[in-house]
């Protein structure tokens, strides 16, 4: 088990949001004011012009390169820089610029995701991304498009492709969601899918979207599925303290890596990165 750091970027700012609250609209962004914004105790939507609505736990005054430099200095690799704006958003350019600066500050230390296709993947790799993270391009019109998946693999190489298999619960199943976690696909996350997609990707990233950003505990029922992955897999969602990390480690037989966002002190929470590293080691 490894701790994987994260940097989430929305409307050109480093943020922590409640994942299931993100909604693409014709309005979005930040409220006025320059101070860090916290909404850990209340579901507060903060929006401006031209972006997307999201319930925000934290908005940082610091840029993405600051955080990737911190992770570099701590020796933490394999983390994720995620652009949370749609490629069609007027804010995508600003968010992309933040992502590229983070990658340049820690060459080879972070993966990059958000609006990535075979046409632009090279730009992120050249900026320093160890992998590119892809969901919506591959899960096209609700199904896995194996032609697109093959093109993505051939463009960057299997070892540099991470598939985001973030999911939400529907009945007793976990269904993969796309378009910044807003749209259900027809694809069920199970051991068979994890096995078959491993021919195309070197890693998986799975956000348990129903608990993402809520600090209410991990999605325990999905863990037995995730531990069947034949390639490295990182879980995200709901971690609120060391007990959750210990639980994930036990339920996942130590096979599943973890990322923590809103619960970290650097993002307005209470957990120190160093105590997580010590817990896992």
Helix-residue proportion:
25-40%
Radius of gyration: 17 Å
What's the SSE pattern?
Answer: EEEEEEHEHEHEEEHEEEEHEHEHEH
Task: Using the alpha-carbon principal axes, give the shape.
Answer: globular
Distance between the termini: 8 Å
DSSP helical segment count? 8
Strand order of the largest sheet: 4-6-2-1-7-8-9-12-16-17-18
Q: Segments where pLDDT lies below 50 for 5+ residues?
A: 26-51
The proportion of residues in beta strands is 15-25%
Average pLDDT across residues?
88
Structural class: alpha/beta
Record field, number of beta strands: 18
Biggest beta sheet summary: 11 strands, mixed
Description:
The chain has 281 residues and is of the alpha/beta class. The chain is 26% helix and 24% strand. The chain is built from 8 helices and 18 strands. The chain has helices spanning 64-74, 92-105, 121-127, 146-156, 191-197, 223-226, 242-251, 273-280; strands spanning 6-10, 13-17, 23-24, 37-38, 52-53, 56-59, 79-83, 110-113, 132-134, 139-140, 143-144, 161-164, 167-170, 173-178, 183-188, 203-207, 233-236, 257-259. It is globular, with a radius of gyration of 17 Å.
List keywords for this structure.
281 residues; alpha/beta; 8 helices; single chain; three-stranded antiparallel β-sheet
Give a quick precis of the structure:
By secondary structure, the protein is an alpha/beta fold. The protein has helices at 64-74, 92-105, 121-127, 146-156, 191-197, 223-226, 242-251, 273-280; strands at residues 6-10, 13-17, 23-24, 37-38, 52-53, 56-59, 79-83, 110-113, 132-134, 139-140, 143-144, 161-164, 167-170, 173-178, 183-188, 203-207, 233-236, 257-259.
């Amino acid at each position: 088990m490894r701790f994987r750091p994260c940097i989430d970027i929305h409307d050109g700012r480093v943020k922590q949001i409640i994942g299931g609250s993100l909604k693409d609209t014709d309005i979005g962004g930040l409220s006025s004011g320059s101070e860090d914004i916290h909404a850990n105790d209340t579901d507060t939507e903060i929006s401006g012009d031209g972006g997307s609505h999201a319930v925000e736990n934290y908005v940082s005054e610091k840029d993405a390169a600051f955080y990737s430099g911190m992770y570099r200095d701590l020796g933490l690799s394999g983390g994720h820089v995620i652009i949370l704006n749609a490629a069609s958003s007027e804010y995508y350019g600003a968010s992309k610029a933040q992502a590229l600066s983070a990658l340049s500050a820690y060459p080879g230390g972070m993966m990059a995701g958000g609006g990535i296709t075979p046409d632009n993947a090279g730009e992120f790799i050249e900026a320093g991304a160890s992998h590119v993270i892809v969901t919506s391009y591959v899960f096209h019109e609700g199904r896995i498009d194996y032609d697109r998946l093959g093109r993505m693999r051939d463009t960057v190489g299997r070892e540099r492709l991470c598939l985001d298999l973030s999911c939400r619960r529907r009945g007793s199943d976990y269904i993969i969601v796309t378009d910044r976690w807003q749209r259900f696909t027809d694809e069920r996350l199970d051991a068979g899918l994890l096995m078959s997609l491993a021919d195309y990707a070197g890693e998986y990233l799975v956000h348990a979207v129903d608990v993402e950003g809520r600090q209410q505990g991990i999605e325990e029922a999905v863990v037995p599925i995730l531990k069947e992955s034949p390639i490295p897999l990182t879980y995200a969602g709901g971690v609120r303290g060391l007990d959750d990390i210990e639980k994930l480690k036990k339920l996942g037989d130590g096979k599943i890596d973890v990322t923590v966002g809103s619960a970290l002190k650097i993002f307005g929470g209470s957990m120190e990165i160093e105590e997580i590293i010590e817990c896992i080691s």
